[in-house]
Amino acid sequence: MADIVDIIVAPCSFKTLETAIKAAGLVGTLKGAGPFTIFAPDDEAFAKLPQGTVEALLKNIPKLKTILMYHVVAGKLTVDEISQMKTVKTIQGQEVKIDAPHWWTYHINPKINDAYITSKDIVADNGMIHVLTRVLMPNMELTCPVCGMGFMDMDALNLHTRTGHIPEKAAEPTPIMEKVSEPVMPVVKVVPAVEMSTTTKVTEGVFEIICDVGGKFRFHLKAANGQIVAVSQSYGTKESAIKGIASIKTNAPIAKIADFSTVGEILPELRHEGGIVQDPVFELQSSTGDKFRFHLKAANGEIIAVSQSYLTRQAAEKGIESVKKNAPMAKIIDHTIPET
Q1: CA within 13 Å, CB half, 260
Q2: Residue 311: exposed, middle, or buried by beta-carbon count in 10 A (0-12, 13-18, 19+)?
Q3: Which of 83, 193, 299, 318 could form a disulfide with 100 if both were Cys (CB 3.0 to 4.6 A apart)?
């Protein structure tokens, strides 16, 4: 599989980002083992900056490096995991804000600061890429002008300047990366969710239970090829999450498909009201007309799983078939067991 840099270099839509990464000397870092999650602005995002900004940044390498590091997070985070967070710390040192109140219900991808994610969960060998509509800008007033590290308040910056900052060594890359490569997830004594894709070799369908940063439980359904084909809501207890898995195992094989992607008004015969016992159903939807998703609703009308985005209806239908095929016999892997 290609690494993050290989994927960014390949398409034509990341030419500016490619140039910036090379100019900032971050190719080696982003080709490293990581794993990293990168919020990648495409060429259209860079074009929204004031005229001359990109050219000026390419001449100001320290500032350019600071801005690029503000787009990178330690760990391999899917959009499902990101949507459970309010903030996440970047390797630059400052946090980005995450706004995802409508992700579960309406499948609107999370907003990172003032930028929306357009394409998500692009898997690389050493991490994950999510494409952004805008370039993220750190708070330069709280950024060290020598090493480029950012802080959340002035007291932290002053402390860094007084005690932790050695100007003559600031340009060396190793000390900087040693500081910023520490895990950014809050301290929770569980197996980190970001380790799932590297520690679990999937040879058959599996449900993976994780604990999100809010202390809630969620699960993914992975197909035999390791692709996430369905994700759950948040549960207050692990027992509830396990019951959710059991519900998918029971309902998925017998659920019919209701195609709402081409219907302006949901026809009465296709309605599935919450709380009313009916046949389980996969609801195929398209909010924008060019991407497709599906819900799996249980017999009581509750949504028990949702899918990723698909470019075609046929691909979404294959996703449904994958859930039907993999869910019944899928094993459960619990990533919330405390480490020893």
Answers
A1: 20
A2: exposed
A3: 83
Q: Which residue has the tokens 């699960």?
A: 219
Q: Domain containing 45 — which CATH number?
A: 2.30.180.10
CB neighbour list of residue 231: distance below 8 Å, 6 or more residues apart: 80, 218, 219, 220, 221, 305, 306, 307
Q: Along the 340 residues of the chain, how does pLDDT read in single tens digits?
A: 688 888 888 767 889 999 999 998 888 888 888 788 999 999 999 999 999 999 999 988 888 988 999 999 888 888 877 877 788 889 888 888 988 766 655 556 778 888 888 877 788 888 888 999 899 999 888 887 667 788 888 888 777 766 554 443 333 333 333 333 333 333 333 333 333 333 444 457 898 888 765 567 888 888 888 788 888 887 888 888 898 898 898 888 888 888 877 654 444 444 444 444 467 888 888 765 567 888 888 878 888 888 877 778 888 888 999 999 888 888 898 887 654 4
- DSSP annotation of 235: B
Nearest to 26 by CA among 59, 71, 76: 71
Residue 130 in tokens: 């999510």
Map residue 219 onto helix, strand or coil: strand
Domain of 218, CATH number, reads 2.30.29.80
Quote the tokens at residue 264: 């302006």
Q: How many domains does the chain have?
A: 2
Within a domain: 144: yes
Range of the domain at 276: 193-334
Indicate the pairing of strand 36-41 with strand 127-132: parallel
The pTM assigned to this predicted structure is 0.54
Tokens read off for 54: 């990109």
